[in-house]
Structure formats: structure tokens, C-alpha cells
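INFO batch 0412 | record 1 of 1 | parsing
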Amino acid sequence: MWRFFVLGPAVVSVTALYSSIESLEQVATSRFHAQQKTFLVLVTLASCACFITWVSLAFPSAMTLIMIRDFFGWFGIALAAGRMFGWRVCWILPVLVLIPMLYWGTADAEGKFPWWEFTARPIEDLGAAAENAALFLLGILVYSLTPWRISSVQRSFRKKAASHNVPDV
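INFO prediction complete | emitting C-alpha cells
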């Protein structure tokens, strides 16, 4: 179960973005979003500092390094879930990922974990590092999809589709 302790700080960092005026955030300016990003970075750094301090005191250094690596994957999943479902319930997707990892993500007779189990493999496993990096980048990408960016992309696709339907004169 030590592999999943890192889930908490990652989700707490993203949950800090919740506010009661969430509907107004959809029409917020770029200045608001810049401040929100700064806030997210500061809260995440504080959360990581507290987490790393306590984990390094309680666990061996190899486990601590694995937990630090895994933070980025869980943070990316929580960030994507926060953008999709709302910041207050950003824990939904990480928990849905956690359930199959607990059930099917156990080691085989040789002590090897499945390729998709990014929290259990040793620190020198490049596949686990790549999975964590990919999950982190996916979370950042989904976070950057603000409502106005989504609507502007949809408008540009509509314009292109409409221009292709114009008959030749």
C-alpha cells in the first residue's frame, strides 16, 4: 500500500483549485488563468516539500525516489480529472485508476509487475518513468484546454467544414 500514499498529495494539490465561483472561471481573463497556474505551482511545490520530508523520514531512500517519480503520474491524472469533472471531484479518475492497480497490478511469480503498473516498478525502470512523464504531460495538456480554447478550436473546425461545403462557381 505504500505505493499509493503519493496519491493524496497529488490530489490535494489539484483540489486546491476549487472555488465556489467555478462558473465564473469559465469566462475569466488570461490574467486569472496565469494567477491560477502560479497558485497551482506554489501549492504543488508546498505539497511536494511536505510529502517528501515525511516520506524520507518514514521510508527507505529507494521507496522515496519511487514515490517522488510516481507523484508526477498521479498529479497528471488528477489534473486531467479536475478539468473534466471539476476541481472539487478531481479524485474520481485517480481512484478509478487505483482500483484496477490494486486488483490486477500485483507482481507475478518472478516479482515483475505488469507494464501498465507505473507505481510499483523499480526506480531504474525507464518504462515507469516514461508512463509517469506521459501522464503528467497529458494532465498539463488537458489542464491547458480552457473553455475559450475549446470553443475557439470548435469554431475553427466549423469554419473549415463550412468552407469545404461551398459549391464551386
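INFO post-check: The chain is about 70% helix and 0% strand.
INFO record closed
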